[in-house]
Specification:
The chain is α+β, with helices and mostly antiparallel strands. The protein has a domain at 1-43. Helices cover 31% and strands 12% of the residues. The protein contains five helices and six strands; from the N terminus they run E-E-E-E-H-E-E-H-H-H-H. The chain has a two-stranded antiparallel sheet with strand order 1-2. A hairpin with a 6-residue loop joins strand 5 (52-54) and strand 6. The structure holds iron/sulfur cluster.
Length: 170
């Protein structure tokens, strides 16, 4: 799961924005200012597929209705001036992003469950995450020193926790 950190907005004091949103202050041409994603090429799949979700069979995308305002009527959180249509999204890219986002969410929930079984200090969580995500690839090549049996695959997530190495930073 990706939870994009919010930071104070410069254009709209008293409100917050995604930390990756670059703001340009309002001018005559753009009275509400401009905002651009500073990581557009690497933005999360959830952003890429907004505002779609997978249908019940996980085969098709469904657009959900966007409210006119994201939070409490504050004008800074006004959203799209019209509802999105299917033609606003590229079909294959959207489905692929939704599938990846769903897969990664399932994976992260598994990691979170492991962490929550025996949570360490909060500042050791990034190292725990780093160990998990750095060890997602194994090899069937017998000459590969990183060889792991199929049975070991299900235990790979647990190994980081069992080693306790991620707690050294705590
Ligand atoms: S597209 Fe996503 S990452 Fe980029 S500014 Fe918007 S919410 Fe943030």
């Amino acid at each position: 799961m990706i939870c994009l950190k919010h930071i104070p907005s410069l254009s709209f004091p008293g409100t917050t924005k995604c930390r990756f949103l670059t703001e340009c202050l309002p001018d005559e041409e753009h009275p509400k200012g401009l905002g651009r994603c500073s990581i557009y090429g690497s933005r999360p799949h959830t952003c890429r597929s907004f505002p779609a979700k997978l249908n019940d069979s996980n085969e098709l995308a469904v657009l959900y209705e966007i409210p006119s305002n994201g939070r409490d009527g504050e004008p800074a959180y006004d959203l799209c001036p019209r509802q999105w249509t299917a033609s606003d999204l590229e079909p294959n890219d959207t489905i692929q992003s939704l599938v990846i986002a769903q897969y990664e969410m399932t994976f992260f929930k598994k990691i979170a469950a492991i962490w929550n079984q025996n949570p360490g200090e909060w500042n050791s969580f990034p190292e725990f995450i780093d160990i998990i995500y750095s060890n997602r690839i194994s090899s069937e090549n017998k000459s590969d020193s990183n060889l792991e049996s199929p049975e070991a695959d299900d235990k790979r997530l647990h190994s980081a926790e069992e080693s306790g190495s991620y707690r050294k930073a705590a």
